[in-house]
TrEMBL record:
<comment type="similarity">
    <text>Belongs to the DEAD box helicase family.</text>
</comment>
<dbReference type="InterPro" id="IPR011545">
    <property type="entry name" value="DEAD/DEAH_box_helicase_dom"/>
</dbReference>
<dbReference type="InterPro" id="IPR014014">
    <property type="entry name" value="RNA_helicase_DEAD_Q_motif"/>
</dbReference>
<feature type="compositionally biased region" description="Basic and acidic residues">
    <location>
        <begin position="391"/>
        <end position="400"/>
    </location>
</feature>
<feature type="compositionally biased region" description="Gly residues">
    <location>
        <begin position="420"/>
        <end position="436"/>
    </location>
</feature>
<feature type="domain" description="DEAD-box RNA helicase Q">
    <location>
        <begin position="2"/>
        <end position="30"/>
    </location>
</feature>
<feature type="domain" description="Helicase C-terminal">
    <location>
        <begin position="231"/>
        <end position="381"/>
    </location>
</feature>
<protein>
    <submittedName>
        <fullName>ATP-dependent RNA helicase RhlE</fullName>
    </submittedName>
</protein>
<keyword id="KW-0378">Hydrolase</keyword>
<feature type="region of interest" description="Disordered">
    <location>
        <begin position="371"/>
        <end position="501"/>
    </location>
</feature>
<keyword id="KW-0067">ATP-binding</keyword>
<feature type="compositionally biased region" description="Basic and acidic residues">
    <location>
        <begin position="460"/>
        <end position="470"/>
    </location>
</feature>
<dbReference type="Pfam" id="PF00271">
    <property type="entry name" value="Helicase_C"/>
</dbReference>
<feature type="compositionally biased region" description="Gly residues">
    <location>
        <begin position="477"/>
        <end position="488"/>
    </location>
</feature>
<dbReference type="InterPro" id="IPR014001">
    <property type="entry name" value="Helicase_ATP-bd"/>
</dbReference>
<dbReference type="InterPro" id="IPR001650">
    <property type="entry name" value="Helicase_C-like"/>
</dbReference>
<feature type="compositionally biased region" description="Low complexity">
    <location>
        <begin position="409"/>
        <end position="419"/>
    </location>
</feature>
Length: 501
């Protein structure tokens, strides 16, 4: 198929594609759309950034437009499972864009946000539900969702779904689905566990593989720079000072490592944001929105962002840490050179990571060219780097503190223990001194003595019956709150106990 019009898609879908400027399908779309439109089960293997979302979204919208029926109450007709919140959002947006001329409803649910709003959105039923496994099971357990009416199941990025430990959740979800359904599996790689999953849940599937397993994007220029651990931060800062780098994704292996990189860049005047599993959903959304809008040109991420973040014009990808899973390298560098553009992927490699580099070259079947230090860069010695790292560890993290010092959430000038969000002095109130060791509040004795009399450590004077101590004006801290009306102490809110998604 050379044009989307050759597939026989419903006219409203073709109209949306025309308005979006899409005319020629990608290889995965050319091979997957036709059998999916016919209701066949399908297992599609294609590297990230090749258009897999449209490969299943377009035939699904076509089928729903022909089979007009209402979604079951507290249920859905199409269930799309995604490993991450970012990918789930992207998929839901694609369904909205491609189906904007169809009278279909879709919603997205994932952890890290209030579940009540999601329950209200599902109450009347939706045609298309995009979900992460953990939050989906939460909704089922709360009897806010039923899967008995699912007609089509889509498992996107199946290999990462298993890497993140969702195999038991997937098995439980599949047991709740009708036996008679269409199933579409899409993955960037085809390890043995994915092949076994496909054999178990797909019926006579069409196999579609448009690229060899774990190959890198052709238009991505790759290089590796050998540098010891202590030189990586300075090397990254030197590279990012190049004005030609318009938008760059930096990948680290750990969440704390991502935060350290952001702090290091901030110290040298380079603005950056971090996105990883320890960030709340609003924080992740703000960081991603700023990166997409160009307000922040550097986004530091863990592998949670290696798939599912479709950001245009990412000119560079920097692997600050090489991944210990070689397939992750393919997904990371696939964030650049999208939609026919060129891109550069630079990887830093220390002595301990050389084994990871060999695994990456083995699975991608290519040697990554070795690059030299950029012109003008003098790496710090190991001793200098160690001293910098030790100073960084000793330096207190003052981000988020109020002017005047103190802990975050503490009133300026307050003594230790006053207004503390958590800890032994939870009951302390601003201006009253530290609380008792057992957390109880100090009695308010300011109005219980004659003016000018020094406070006594003796028992509190007896009050007449019905006489109550006068309460201070303003909001009292609640829930172990800090100096700002107690709201700091309640900032955690609802905690998602499902697997991270």
């Amino acid at each position: 198929m050379t044009q989307f019009t050759d597939f026989g898609l419903a006219q409203p879908v073709l109209k949306a594609l025309e308005e979006a400027g899409y005319h020629t399908p990608t290889p995965i779309q050319s091979q997957a759309i036709r059998p999916a439109m016919e209701g066949r089960d399908l297992c599609g293997i294609a590297q990230t950034g090749t258009g897999k979302t449209a490969a299943f979204a377009l035939p699904i919208l076509h089928r729903l437009s022909l089979e007009k029926r209402h979604a079951p109450r507290r249920g859905c007709r199409v269930l799309v499972l995604s490993p991450t919140r970012e990918l789930a959002n992207q998929i839901a947006e694609s369904f909205s864009d491609y189906g904007k001329h169809l009278p279909l409803t879709n919603t997205v649910v994932f952890g890290g946000v209030t579940i009540g709003r999601q329950e209200r959105a599902l109450a009347p039923g939706v045609d298309i539900l995009v979900a992460t496994p953990g939050r989906l099971i939460d909704l089922v357990d709360r009897r806010s969702l039923t899967l008995e009416g699912v007609e089509i199941l889509v498992l996107d990025e199946a290999d990462q779904m298993l890497d993140l430990g969702f195999i038991h959740a997937l098995k439980r979800i599949v047991k709740m689905l009708p036996a008679k359904r269409q199933s579409l599996f899409f993955s960037a790689t085809m390890p043995k566990n994915i092949a076994g999953l496909a054999d178990q849940y797909l019926r006579d599937p069409v196999q579609v593989a448009v690229t060899p397993v774990a190959t890198t994007a052709e238009r991505v220029e790759q290089q590796v720079i050998f540098a010891h651990t202590g030189a990586k931060q300075a090397l990254l800062a030197h590279i990012l000072r190049d004005p030609k780098i318009e938008r760059v994704l930096v990948f680290t292996r750990t969440k704390h490592g991502a935060d350290r990189v952001v702090r290091g860049l901030d110290k040298v005047g380079i603005a950056a944001s971090a996105i990883h599993g320890n960030k709340s959903q609003p924080q992740r959304e703000r960081a991603l929105a700023a990166f997409k809008d160009g307000q922040c040109r550097v986004l530091v991420a863990t592998d949670i962002a290696a798939r599912g973040i479709d950001v245009e014009a990412v000119s560079h990808v920097v692997n600050f840490d090489l991944p210990n899973v070689p397939e992750s390298y393919v997904h990371r560098i696939g964030r650049t050179a999208r939609a026919g553009a060129d891109g550069l992927a630079i990887s830093f490699c220390n002595d301990e990571e050389k084994a990871y580099l060999r695994d990456i070259e083995r699975i991608t079947r290519q040697r990554i060219p070795v690059g030299a230090f950029p012109e003008g860069f003098t790496p710090p010695t190991r001793q200098e780097a160690a001293e910098i790292a030790q100073a960084e560890e000793r330096r207190p993290d003052t981000r988020g503190q109020r002017p005047g010092g103190g802990r975050p959430g503490q009133r300026p000038g307050a003594r230790p223990g006053q207004g503390r969000p958590f800890g032994g002095n939870r009951g302390a109130e601003p201006g009253r001194g530290p609380g008792r060791p057992d957390g109880a509040r100090q009695p308010d004795t300011r109005n219980a003595r004659p003016q000018g009399e020094r406070p006594s450590n003796g028992p509190r004077p007896e009050r007449a019956a019905g006489d109550r101590p006068r309460q201070p004006t303003g909001n009292r801290p609640r829930g172990g709150g800090g100096g700002n009306g107690g709201n700091e102490g309640r900032a955690i809110g609802w905690l998602d106990r499902s697997p991270r998604s």
